[in-house]
Amino acid sequence: MAEVVYGSEIAASIKNDLKQQMDCLRNAGKRLPRLVVILIGANPASLSYVRGKEKACQMIGMENELIHLPEDTKEQELLALIETYNKNTDVDGILVQLPLPEHMDEHKILLAIDPGKDVDGFHPYNIGRMMMGEATFLPCTPMGIMEVLKRIGYDDLSGKQAVVIGRSNIVGKPIAQLLLKANATVTVTHSKTKDIEKITSQADVLIAAVGKPRLIRSDWVKAGAVVIDVGVNRDENNHLCGDVDFEAVKEKASFITPVPKGIGPMTIAMLLQNTWNAYQIHEREV
Ligand code: GUN
Fold first, then answer.
1. Using a 6 Å cutoff on CB, does residue 170 contact ligand 1?
2. How far is CA 244 from the centre of its chain?
3. Is 177 a catalytic residue?
4. Does ligand 1 come within 6 angstroms of the Cβ of 227?
5. DSSP assignment of 171-182, as one string?
6. Is 87 labeled as catalytic in the residue annotation?
7. Beta carbons of 201 and 219 less than 8 angstroms apart
């Protein structure tokens, strides 16, 4: 029977440490870190994610600004807005919530953000640095997964097989890179993979990031595996659930993250951590 690893508890302790840093700055009359979150349109999931980010900033006392623009905002207007925040020395982090409306070119928008304020770690420059194993802003969800692995003593994966299910730019591809850096032998599987369960059942560390409710059953999992569930789905009864059949897989795994209270809260904690890191770099540059 697996130990259930509550990312929510790890995130709370990280946020508590950051709150103390904010209190110190405030007491010393210093400038506080500032995060700007830009949301275009009214996608309900995106709205809920950005509210979570706003709430977390408020909780630790970090400055934050939510810019909510209509769905029909012109790409040029968004680019101009990003440029304003790039130049504003009071702003440490800029996050444009994805997905963007169809008429906008995501690549062009992400490229416009100053890489030094790219607290999402989505700018091609930062992705390139991550690929080369250099210090940079890491995408928040993969960074949160690595933090969870560290806390359970799985930060050196020498000799271990890691299997990632899903190949998105936000989770699948970057987590594969970070696992590789931690010395794992990494396999990335996806919707076109043949006999996927044969591959996943070899994994010492299994990362599920597909977005399909309870897809990963216990026969996909090796006994004693560490199972990290990144999925946030609604099942047929509209209940929140992950990509992993939690009740069955927890009987077989050694560690498992739940949904909710697993990786989701870690993503937000890492965003705050990245903004704090950006602030410290900006202050050194002044
Ligand atoms: N959409 C889903 N996850 C994310 C995220 O981590 N950052 C941004 N900017 N958009 C997202």
1. yes
2. 18
3. no
4. no
5. THHHHHHHHHHT
6. no
7. yes
Is the previous residue joined to 99 through a cis bond, with omega within 30 degrees of 0?
Answer: yes
37-80 tens-digit pLDDT: 999 999 999 999 999 999 999 999 999 999 999 999 999 999 99
Q: Looking at ligand 1, which atom is closest to the CA of residue 267?
A: 6
What's the pLDDT at 285?
86
Rounded Cα–Cα distance for residues 176 and 171 (Å): 8
Whole-model pTM over 0.85: yes
- Is 97 annotated as catalytic? yes
Taking CA atoms, 37 is separated from 34, 62, 161, 193, in Å, by 10, 13, 37, 36
The residue from 92, 117, 118, 120 that is catalytic is 120
Q: Is the CB of 98 under 6 A from ligand 1?
A: yes
34: tokens are: 């500032």
Residues 6+ apart with CB under 8 A from 8: 260, 261, 262, 265
Q: Which residues of the chain form beta strands (DSSP E)? A: 3-4, 34-40, 63-69, 93-96, 161-165, 185-189, 205-208, 226-229, 233-234, 240-241, 255-256
Residue minimizing CA distance to atom 8 of ligand 1: 97
The string of pLDDT tens digits covering residues 104-147 is 999 999 999 999 999 999 999 999 999 999 999 999 999 999 99
